[in-house]
Amino acid sequence: MTNLDLHDISRAARTYGVKAFYVVTPLDDQKSLAEKIVSHWIRGTGATYNPIRREALELIRIKDSLEDVTEHIRSQGEGEPRTIVTCARTHQGSISYDRFREMLNNGGPCLLIFGTAWGLSEDFISKADYVLDSVRGQTDYNHLSVRSAASIILDRLFRVETRNSKLET
User: Fold this and answer.
1) How confident is the model at residue 73, as a pLDDT?
2) Least crowded by CB within 10 Å, which of 1, 9, 53, 75?
3) Burial code of 106-133, b = ≥16 C-beta within 10 A, e = fewer?
4) What is the predicted pLDDT for the residue at 138?
5) What DSSP designation does 88 have?
6) Which phi and psi angles does 20 have, rounded to 5°?
7) Residue 156 phi/psi, 5° resolution?
8) pLDDT exceeding 70 applies to what percent of the chain?
9) Which CATH number fits domain 3-158: 3.40.50.1820, 3.40.1280.10, 3.40.720.10, 2.30.40.10?
């Protein structure tokens, strides 16, 4: 987890209307760091310095485990969330962005899960309800930062299609 991950993912989440951005780590030093960063921007001087950033970082919820996250979602009265994991590797049976968008439109909570560093373990991935199609570029190189992958995926799921008029020159 990095400072940039917290800022960039929360800003992308706010832009695309995501309800919450959960940061999950059992490590006390990582939780403490995340709490310090979030506190600065939602209650400290950062809140008055940049209220737009505060609005984004208010989406962050820091939890010890995935079980804590699912319990928090259930406690909001929305039911059991379906888990959709992301992975840079291709997985047989993964779902498309169109299929995931249909699930989102049909209601019920969905929990989109990203990993950092070496990604999510195969064991963790196998326990998810779904694996989302990987983000692929035009080359064999596929090592995006989590914040880049999150922004791309959120855009693929939630972008508003607009037609650009021709620019006058």
Assistant:
1) 97
2) 75
3) eeebbbbbbbeeebbeeeebeebebbbb
4) 94
5) S
6) -155, 150
7) -60, -30
8) 96
9) 3.40.1280.10
